[in-house]
Design goal:
- With about 140 residues, this protein is mainly alpha-helical.
- It has two domains: about 1-85, Hypothetical protein, domain 2 (Endonuclease III, domain 1), CATH 1.10.340.30; about 95-140, no CATH class.
- Helix content is about 55%, strand content about 0%.
- The radius of gyration is 18 Å and the shape is elongated.
- The relative contact order is 0.09.
């Protein structure tokens, strides 16, 4: 997609103004195109304060991002962890985290979100760090 914009990422306004057919020819599915266009329109109109997200508390970031079509809680939590570097995020809907917790705690079944929250309460304020270890444990277990 960068090729459409001279080898660089487009600004939100540029992406919002790019004809759908041109983006489709670049390989975007209809669904992803809809998501990107919604994200670009919101950012260009100032309805998604991209520059201010870093200063917002986690729940406000999740609320702002999930207002975008196609962005769910899991995606917002990954943004918090990997883009904003937040250290106290517990993505309870992530299968890798569920599997890692099941392994680490010898659970017979994958834990439900409420159980995961209870278990992880003692990990505060470093639940993201614990999540990285849970992902690794699940990955190593295959």
């Amino acid at each position: 997609m960068h090729a459409l914009y001279g080898g660089r990422a487009p600004t939100p306004a540029e992406l919002a103004a790019t004809p759908t057919a041109r983006l489709r020819r670049a390989g975007l599915s209809r669904q992803k195109l809809g998501y990107l266009k919604d994200l670009a329109r919101r950012a260009a109109a100032g309805r998604l304060p991209l520059d201010a997200l870093e200063a917002l508390p986690d729940e406000a970031v999740i609320e702002a991002l999930t207002a975008v079509r196609g962005v769910g809680v899991w995606t917002a939590q990954m943004f918090l962890m990997f883009r904003l570097g937040r250290l106290d995020v517990l993505p309870v809907l992530d299968l890798g985290i569920q599997k890692g917790m099941r392994l680490a705690y010898g659970l017979r079944r994958l834990p439900k979100p409420a159980q995961m929250e209870r278990i992880a309460a003692v990990w505060r304020p470093y639940r993201s760090v614990a999540s990285w270890y849970l992902w690794r444990a699940a990955e190593r277990a295959g």
